[in-house]
Each structure stands twice: as C-alpha cells, then as structure tokens.
Design goal:
Number of domains: 2
CATH superfamily of the largest domain: Nucleic acid-binding proteins
Helix content: 25-40%
Strand content: 35-45%
Radius of gyration: 18 Å
Structural class: alpha/beta
C-alpha cells in the first residue's frame, strides 16, 4: 500500500508541476504579458478562448499574418496563422485586433507583432485584442502551424 500511495503522490506532484510550468511558459517575464509562441500557437490561442474569464483584461503578445477583411461594408482586422482546416480559409487561428481609428493598419498579409488587451464585445460573442502596439516585423515566422 505504501508503494502505491507514494507513486500516486509522485504522479500528482508531477502533474501539478507540469501544469504550473505550462501556465508559466505562457507568461513573458516582462509585466505578466501572455506570449503566444510559435511552437504551441493553436493550443495557446484555444486556451484563451476556452478560458476567456481568466484572460479578459490581460495583455497578450502574438506574432502572425495581418489580415484585413471586409464584410458588408465593415472592415475587420486579424492577426494569426494558418492552421489545419478543411474548407478554404477556415483554418485561420488568431484574434481580431482593433484600436483607435486614428491609428493606421499595415498592409494586408504583413507579418506583425501585436500586443493588446483581451476584451469581448460586451455581449459575450467574441474576443478581440484592444491593441497597445502593432508593428511590422522584418523576419517572418511560420505561416502554417499545427499545434
């Protein structure tokens, strides 16, 4: 019985350590900014959407493709990457981004670094990043991600 209890305790301790490392791995050392990284891009973005209450009001840094899209006369801006999908552009993973209308946006398909505060549309329909900064990067990362 002692051996089994010890094994269970070790497994639980390891699981707790792994969970804390995963959360800490998302945190930048600068001011608690959550950094969406290339290696686990889809998983980290999904975590924000799934656990939206934990992220609302927090600052996120993300690199990806800047997309401008028009829908019924309204322009929408996104930063993200192409992920697995089945039907054309349904595999895009990322966030809508927005800021003061006096700011300009980069060219469509630019590679950018976006830093913004996670907000929702006040109706709980979708999340977006209220931008603090949006900078075009010279070095482009991977357009296509799988994790």
């Amino acid at each position: 019985m002692g051996k089994i209890s010890g094994t269970i305790i070790m497994i639980m301790a390891f699981a707790g350590l792994a969970a804390s490392c995963t959360r800490a791995g998302n945190e930048s050392s600068q001011n608690g900014i959550v950094e969406i990284r290339e290696r686990m891009f889809i998983s980290q973005v999904n975590d924000v959407y799934i656990n939206r209450q934990s992220y609302l009001g927090r600052t996120i840094k993300i690199e990806g493709i800047f997309i401008r899209s028009e829908n019924n006369g309204s322009w929408h801006n996104f930063v993200g990457r192409n992920g697995p999908g089945c039907c054309g552009n349904d595999g895009f993973v990322g966030f809508e981004v927005s800021w003061d209308r006096t700011q300009t946006y980069p060219e469509h398909d630019s590679w950018v670094e976006a830093v913004g505060i996670v907000k929702d549309d006040n109706q709980g329909n979708y999340l977006y990043l209220d931008l603090v900064s949006l900078n075009v990067q010279e070095k482009r990362g991977r357009d296509q991600v799988f994790q």
